[in-house]
Every structure is written in C-alpha cells, then in structure tokens.
Amino acid sequence: MAKPEIMVMNPVRRDVLAQLDADFTLLRADQAEDQPDFIARSGAACRAMLISGNNAITSDVLDAMPALAMISCSTAGYDALPVDEIGARGIALTNTSPALRDDVADMGMLLLLAARRGFVAGDAYVRSGDWARKGMYPLQRKVSGSRLGIVGMGSLGSAVARRAEAFGMQIGYWNRREKDVPWTWYPDLVDLAKNSDALILTIAGGPETEGLIGAEVMAALGPQGLLVNIARGSVVDEAALIDALESGALGHAALDVYRSEPDPDPRLTALPNVTLSPHHASGTEETRTDMARLAADNLRAFFAGKELLSPVAIPGAGA
Length: 319
What we know:
The protein starts with a strand and ends in a 16-residue tail after the last helix. Helices cover 38% and strands 14% of the residues. The protein folds into two domains: 5-98 and 286-303, NAD(P)-binding Rossmann-like Domain (Rossmann fold, 3-Layer(aba) Sandwich), CATH 3.40.50; 141-276, NAD(P)-binding Rossmann-like Domain (Rossmann fold, 3-Layer(aba) Sandwich). The longest helix has 20 residues, at 97-116. The protein has 319 residues and is an alpha/beta fold.
C-alpha cells in the first residue's frame, strides 16, 4: 500500500524527519528551488501539510492542493497562515502549543525577575569594572509578594500563575470569560493593570487581540509598573509602548516578541528600561524536539482517523 503524502513546507528536525519518512511519502517543498511550481506539480492529491506558523501561504497554494484536509503547524503561533480561508475550506489545523507551554512560562518568569532585579545591567556592571569604581549596584524592586496580572488565562496563563505562586505573588487575571481557577478575575483590563505591579501577556495573537495593550493599560500599570510580553508582538500597541517608556508613564518592559521581527524598532531597543529576548521562549533542544514530534503525531492521528491531539478551533475547520 502506498504511503500517504505530506507536503513539507519547512525544514524538520532530523530525528523526527526520519520517523516521518518511514511512515509517509514526504513531498519536500522546503527543498524546492521554485516552491509554487513544485506544489502545483506535486500537490493535487496530497491531503496533509506540515508547516511552520511563520510561513505565509497563499490562496494559490491552497488551490493547488484541492484534496488538502489537514495542516499540521509545527509552532504554537500560526499568524502567517490564512486561518479564515483554511476554515472556510474545511481544512483542519493543529499547532504545538502544549509542547512549549512550560518553556514559555519559564521565560515569562525569567523576564519578570531579570527586569525587576536589573539582571542584564547588573551583569554589565560587573564586567565593565563599574562595581569596583562606583561601588554598590543600585537597589532594584522585589518580586516575591508583589501583584501579578496575567492577560489571558489559558494553558500558558495557568502555567505562569502556578510558577508565580511559588514566589508568593498575588495573582489576578483578565480573560474574556471567568475561568474555574483559584485566582482573581478582573473583567476590565485597565482595572487589572491598576491592581498589578507587573502584567504578563499570555494571550493568543491575531486580529481579535491586535493592539489590546494600549496607552490606557500602560498608564494604569504606572511608572513603577512592568509589562512582560511572551505572547505576540501584535498584542501590544508598540508606538504607545515606546511613548510610555520614554515618558516614564510605564516603568519597564520585558519582551520576547515584537511587532517587527527579527528587526525590532530601534527606538525600542535603544531604551534603557527594556529587557530584551530574541523570541526564544521555546528555544530549548528538548522543547523544539517535542514540538516537532507533536506536529508529526497530529499527522499520524489524522491519517489513522483518530482525534487530533492539539486542534486549533477555527470556524469551519475539519468540517
């Protein structure tokens, strides 16, 4: 029996690629010199695609694959994919959010601690010799016992909250609906910011949350406040963020994601009250392997007629 075909749009980790190659016929669009031509020639009967959520695909690609019924996204985010059109065509979509939840939650706490304790500047203070020349490093801000607001109480938000509990933090959250969790729900985002020393953003990206964190939220967080973003750059009004940081309306930002990647706004990166990470929250060997395996396991579940392991809920998907 012929093995099912999968259109591979991006490079795959070597060990997982070998396992996929044993189970499927891999159509390596990622290696094609002319990818659209390769898909047009090879994709007509292909029912599944493996792709990174950072790889934009067009209607022409979907038109060239009329049998396509499932897209396995190897990342948590799928911002570049035409989600509405995928749903309208009845194509199922999966992502790998469960595989990277813990690493991203760890990064959220790392950024929170690094920003509050001035860790990056402190490292430079030692390396430069300023410690010997200038004396004790300036006092910073305490994390334990402070108030943490979490924007988005899904799986990632819950993972951050559990870590914050270990620091004795007082936890509130904003979500569209109240969740069955032991933390305080704020139906108003500005109210959450007013009652938080730091906000961590864990909400999904996309059109519905674009610019959700604007000037009013930042002003409510205040001149001693900290904004941590481990979600998507689109969630924050970046122009308002720069203005707030420059004026002192917001005390500090700690960011793993940006509006323009991998080339963030130089006005933002020049600010001293920003702690920066290169969108690397899931960047461990273990998690990247787990992400690739989950993407592969979703493909196996699809072809076996089983329930998908990590489906993305979009209107029409899988219909």
